[in-house]
Fold:
Amino acid sequence: MLQEESDLSLIIAQIVQKLKGSNLYAQLERQAWASLQRPEIKLESLKEDIKEFFKISGWEKKLQNAVYSELSVFPLPSHPAAPPEHLKEPLVYMRKAQRPVGEQKELLNKWNEMGTDEPDLSLFRPVYAPKDFLEVLINLRNPNYENGDSLSFRTHLGLIQVPLKVKDIPELKELFVELGLTTGQLGIDDSTQVPPELFENEHVRIGQKVLTEQDSAAAQQYIRQGSPTALRAELWALILNISSHPEDILYYEQLKTNVIQHDLLVDSLIYKDVKLTASNDDYYFVFEDYLYQVLLCFSRDTSVLSHFAYNSASPPKSYIRGKLGLEEYAVFYPPNGVIPFHGFSMYVAPLCFLYHEPSKLYQIFREMYVRFFFRLHSISSHPSGIVSLCLLFETLLQTYLPQLFYHLREIGAQPLRISFKWMVRAFSGYLATDQLLLLWDRILGYNSLEILAVLAAAVFAFRAVNLMEVTSLAAAEAVLADLSTLKVMPLLQIFLFATVT
Amino acid sequence: MSRVLVPCHVKGTVALQVGDVRTSQGRPGVLVIDVTFPSVAPFELQEIVFKNYYTAFLTIRVRQHTSTHTPAKWVTCLRDYCLMPDPHSEEGAQEYVSLFKHQMLCDMAQVLELRLILRQPSPLWLSFTVEELQIYQQGPKSPSMTFPKWLSHPVPCEQPTPLLEGLPDPSRVSSEVQQMWALTEMIRASHTSTRIGRFDVDGCYDLNLLSYT
Structure:
């Protein structure tokens, strides 16, 4: 009991420390000063009166939302003896699997060789593609793990060989209880055959109520059943605690100026990536300009560096010539510490459907990145990290579709090789946009990426009959090449709640 | 509350196994670590801190000093404390752990020796242990330093030297300085970690400036 109390006071102290530096603190102070003019504030009960004023004027709600958003992002307070690397990633062998510092510097060398003023994009190759990343994950090994030749009850038949804890279907059913068969869902119960009075109208009404209340926690609970298209942009902004203050717009304009003034090598990588992926996509090619605006600013945004406190990766660092080792002369390259890989622009593209104002679009993307997307391309043992998602996918497939899994393995088509690219991009570019947005609603609602692995397994279950007849990896890929006709929510519901186990 | 590190001597781990170690196939699942305190008198244990390495369950036995002439007996003070919720998977496998006095089953007033019994029932792991073991005892309640004599027995006030011409009144200056000092303390206390957001050095960000070694 003593331990829990001291843990709680530690969390409170850390959140207060974090919020003190934010805009909200200055605004609350200003409001408190201004409220002294009001007649109902009396000097004897100053503290209570000001608290009451905050409650009525809605400022308490804003503070609640800010605390809630900090809690969602905040990792659990660690043991005082634990070094900061332990907070980023507790398992030592996963820390060591990060790209070593020497290799990072080598990359920097290679970039400079290519020349900074060459606009010729043919010289650029994407830094790495999801395929290369999968190879790194396959080779992750725990040195303390029994990897004997004899088959035991725990031999990993899939590609991932790391014994992380993943949930099985009963636990997933508990986690995703709002996706159950008896609860209304957008994506299922709003189809044309179902009369809107049964579910849709009521759901929209509740959504509007949540928006007027401006409560982040309620919005997150609400969005688990899907968000109506008209309310989605505001709901996401509420859950991520983004509000358009003049300071935020000014920050974005400042980043834009940086784009114009400084030329970065990463820009060429971004141009190449956008041209290769989003511009070729039927749904997203219209947003090409928006994508440049967001991604070029993103690579110059140093506030993204703060997420490396809980990200297992580290930003590549270099020193001004002659000052090697001195921390004041250390710079991160690129300034936000994130090297874009092939397909990175697909994280932004679906958001362009929701937000038209560049500064708001930018803020939403940045918040989504530091909360969710960074886990999809860094090696960590977090339950939402890509390693756990891959292992969850393989375990689900192996446990509930053993014949299919065995057959695919026999023909040399390990299922993870096909589904990895879906999960790394959070299905962006593979699903139809409205279905993708329904899926991302649930990611926000449950604050976890595990639903990506469940959906991948559900897709395999859906196409199991066709897959059992293929005889090669290429044929298996062809069966699963086109996901654009799939409806996400029925697949998830059937896989989780309606499959006979 | 304050705590003081107690220097301890950790003996090598002893594996408990049934049968002959050389001929049996499996790895031991139980290890025993003895911790002695050779240079310290019997003390009151406050906290035990260590880093886990794939141990699933921990039992601690303690031998305490008794005032009478009866020989000290071993008593279990922590029984089957779970460090890894699922012994087959990585959860909790490399975590830092703290165990406090109030979690123990018995009083820890006069500790002579500790015995840690580690159990790992899963056959998947090649080895298991606990690392960086540190034992803490209760720190002193009040500082036991003695004040210097001039602080506890102040010299009687002397007559202040006469003011030099043209200088401001020292008591007024000191009160203003005190206010400024309070302001700086306030600013220092509300130290934020927000970044300023600049990434250039003196206005330029030339790649050629960076070193490659």
About this structure: Residues 111-120 of chain A have pLDDT under 50 and may be disordered. Chain A touches chain B through 58 residues (CB under 8 Å).
